[in-house]
Every structure is written in structure tokens, then in C-alpha cells.
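Protocol step 6 of 9: fold each sequence in the batch and record its C-alpha cells directly after the sequence line. For illustration, a two-sequence batch is reproduced in full.

Sequence one:
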Amino acid sequence: MRKIAFVILILILNSCHFIGKGSGIKFEIINNSDTPIKNVKFTTSEYVNAIEFDKIGVNKSVSGFLSMKNNKADGHYVLEFTQLTDNRVIKGYGYYSNGSAMESWVAFKINNDTITHSFSKIK
């Protein structure tokens, strides 16, 4: 019986060790459109933390890591940017639960008339 209690204690301590580690998501934003985009922001629907870029040129990309260590609720990711025509684009993607990312990586490809995205558990 003591061995079972010891194993359960070890499992509990190990699970607590991983809580909060890597709490966030890696991302890449690729501008495949014919014009630069500006005022680019990647954040969550809780707007706790955001990564911002002044400009992404034509056929250029940026990448980074969005920390979610202070997020608490369920929500989605938000990509915002302004096109050359001063058209502001704000779109929500994916889902996270209890402030934790369910995937480890997301890529956005901005085309002239569409935005594609793909989430992955590995990158």
C-alpha cells in the first residue's frame, strides 16, 4: 500500500512540474500578398499579452512566441493587421482552454484575398 501511495505522490509532483511550462504558442506570419502589411498584432481574445510588428514586407515573414502564462480563461487567437488600403483586418482563429495552448505552433499565410492558417502540435 505504501508503494502505491508513493507512486501516486510521484505522479502528482511530476504533473505539477509541467504546469505552466511552455505556456504559450510559437507562430509564424507570412505575407504572400502583393503589398506590405503594417501594424501587425498577434494576441489572444483575453488581450493579456501581444506580439506586435510595425510592418511585414511582400514575401517576408516574422515569427515569435506568444506567452500565455497569465491567460486564465478559454478563448481564441487574434491576428490583426492593416492592409495598404488602410483596411483593418481583425480575425479570430483556433481555440485555447483554461489559458493554455492546445497546440504548440501556428502559421498564418496572408494572401491578397484570404488568410490561411494551420495549427500543429509540433514545430
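Sequence two, same batch, same settings:
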Amino acid sequence: MHIFHSMYHAEEGWLAATNELLMMHIDYQSRRPAPWREETMRRLDALATAHKALPKPEKAGRVIGIRRKP
């Protein structure tokens, strides 16, 4: 999951801070990436749908991916 936050001054409107996060679910038993739980995935899908029409933040970085071996 890729999250980008922007915080603006409440009265003057200038950009005060940004925060960019990359998150993934890790299974504590295997210590490896694992699928999100069904309820969590349902909520993430709802958020993604709600935010789909928003423009990508100009300062947001690239998405990190793991290349699969052939």
C-alpha cells in the first residue's frame, strides 16, 4: 500500500509537511510477505475506490516492487 500525506497551514494554506509511506503485510510466523486479511482487504479496496478519482500527488515517489524470478 502506498500512502502520501500533505499537511497545510490551517489559516495561510502553505504546505507544512509531507509524509510518504509504503506498507505491506508480513506474516509473523513465516516472516515473509502475506496477503492482507479478508476484512482488511475489503476496507483497503473501499479506500482505493474512494481515492481513485483524486490526482496523484506531484511529490509522490515511485512504487517499490519485488521482481519475480522467471
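Proceed to step 7 once all outputs are recorded. Observation for sequence two: The radius of gyration is 16 Å.
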